[in-house]
Amino acid sequence: LSGEMRVQTGGACSVALMLSHWQRLEEDPYFVPTTEEEKEEFGEQGEVCPANMSRKYIDSTRTRK
Questions:
Q1: Read out DSSP for 5-36?
Q2: Does the predicted TM-score (pTM) go above 0.70?
Q3: Most Cβ neighbours (<10 Å): which of 23, 36, 38, 44?
């Protein structure tokens, strides 16, 4: 993007991108219960887990692309 804009404007323009309103999510999007304790709490494949927001964001981004 930066190089393309410089070419189109003859170098009179520069690009400065900044990410805002981002935060790191602490949950693992690829979580699968492995220990007996985790399997007891979350089910064999994690089907009892509360909604995993990290996984939902990844899936929705992949769907858009």
A1: HHHHHTT---------S-----S-TT----SH
A2: no
A3: 38
